[in-house]
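Q: Please design a sequence for this.
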């Protein structure tokens, strides 16, 4: 067992958590739970249950109750800030729909506003805002509750946040965290990714996409009143049919469901956009955020920021006209690049370490905007969030969604896969593109509009 002093308090964040663009940014996830009835006593019991879980979690991992600061050297680190993460409680039974109304509407964006249900906005309100590591907000509605988790983006990517939520669910059930879980969550962060010696270094041109990956989770969007967030649901049967279709024409030895759904979304969005584009003779970029833990030999339960950005660039007309399996294969091939993901991530870490040694900080000046034809995907589908049991009166969530936040055209999320195999896809598109997508017969055959 690790010494209890290894608790990541006043610990420097990992190298990809040093990017200033991540500062005070949050990733949010909303868990929706039905309740048997609605009264003050029930609210008090649930609040006490969750508070007790946070006490147990923070006793094992005190850093989750800390906050991210930028110290005098210019580095980001976690410092102590209270005994437990903040748990905000709101009774919104007179302001929000009932849980049954949420259920009938299938939990759309329009009634999941971060300004109402989240403890902190995705994008920072002010430069001088503090940045707690982990925040929760319970929103009681008639017949249920919405539990929103906010994870600070310097500290954790989504894999890391999902792990903290999983450990919290265990704490709520008063289950002891294993030595392996504690060790992974307490790993010293800053030097965990091995840097590259001069003899094995690669050209700097290979590094750019990795450097921007550390800042690509929640960047300031291209704001437009014409952009809308929308959910579409893909059932297990729809996903199986899509994959069977793709396998018939795939050019690689294997394609995953994520590859196929990504290709399907890419093709459909470009079909919706093409009528307003000046030319079809342009390239389209598809960016995927990829967890690099396995390739780097980092434990799956490591809670830091280890994201690799896989980029696929294809001719727009080719994407639209190619069979689904061909496009899915191209996306799969991008996950096995030359040089390897491991080497590219290590090279990026080496570059950032060098920048810190020479200037004391990372500039954070890398451009991460999307071109007009681009799409950026973060897939959380493999995270077993629906399988988490929070004990007490809560149990497992009925629905999991990302709350709505400022629009950013071309941003896509695959939400955690439900126990029945369904995946909710969050899309941000222009309103005219969205209307064309909803009228696309092929897309409608598989994706159910939620809004």
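A: Design:
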């Amino acid at each position: 067992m690790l010494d209890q002093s290894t608790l990541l308090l006043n610990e420097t964040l990992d190298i990809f958590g040093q990017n200033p663009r991540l500062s005070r940014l949050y990733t949010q996830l909303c868990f929706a739970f039905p309740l048997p009835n609605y009264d003050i006593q029930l609210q008090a019991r649930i609040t006490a249950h969750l508070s007790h879980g946070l006490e147990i979690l923070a006793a094992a991992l005190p850093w989750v109750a800390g906050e991210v600061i930028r110290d005098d050297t210019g580095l980001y680190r976690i410092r102590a800030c209270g005994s437990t993460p903040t748990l905000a409680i709101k009774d919104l039974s007179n302001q929000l729909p009932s849980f049954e109304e949420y259920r009938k509407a299938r939990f759309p964006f329009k009634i999941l506003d971060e300004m109402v249900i989240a403890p902190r906005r995705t994008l920072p309100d002010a430069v001088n805002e503090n940045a707690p590591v982990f925040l929760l907000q319970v929103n009681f509605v008639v017949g249920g509750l919405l539990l929103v988790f906010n994870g600070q983006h310097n500290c954790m990517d989504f894999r890391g946040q999902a792990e903290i939520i999983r450990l919290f669910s265990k704490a709520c059930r008063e289950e002891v965290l294993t030595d392996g879980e504690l060790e992974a969550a307490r790993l010293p962060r800053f030097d965990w990714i091995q840097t590259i010696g001069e003899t094995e270094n690669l050209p700097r041109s290979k590094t750019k996409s990795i450097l921007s990956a550390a800042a690509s989770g929640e960047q300031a969007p291209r704001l437009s009143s014409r952009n809308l967030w929308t959910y579409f649901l893909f059932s297990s049967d729809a996903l199986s049919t899509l994959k069977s279709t793709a396998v018939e024409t795939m050019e690689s030895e294997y394609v995953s469901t994520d590859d196929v759904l990504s290709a399907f979304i890419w093709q459909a969005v470009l079909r919706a956009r093409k009528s307003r584009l000046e030319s079809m003779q342009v390239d389209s970029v598809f960016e995927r955020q990829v967890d690099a833990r396995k390739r780097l030999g980092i434990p799956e339960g490591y809670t830091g920021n280890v994201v690799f950005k896989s980029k696929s660039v294809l001719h727009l007309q080719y994407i639209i006209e190619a069979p689904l399996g061909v496009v899915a294969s191209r996306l799969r091939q991008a996950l096995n690049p030359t040089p390897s993901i491991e080497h590219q991530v290590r090279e990026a870490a080496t570059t950032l370490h060098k920048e810190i040694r020479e200037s004391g900080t990372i500039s954070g000046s890398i451009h991460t905007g999307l071109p007009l034809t681009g799409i950026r995907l973060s897939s959380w589908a493999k995270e077993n969030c629906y399988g988490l049991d929070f004990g007490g009166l809560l149990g497992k969530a009925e629905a999991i969604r990302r709350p709505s936040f400022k629009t950013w055209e071309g941003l896509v999320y695959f939400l955690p896969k439900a126990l029945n195999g369904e995946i909710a896809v969050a899309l941000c598109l222009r309103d005219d593109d969205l209307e064309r997508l909803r009228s696309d017969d092929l897309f409608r055959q598989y994706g159910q509009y939620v809004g």
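Q: Thanks. Anything notable?
A: Residues 117 and 249 are 44 Å apart (CA to CA). The longest strand covers residues 26-34.
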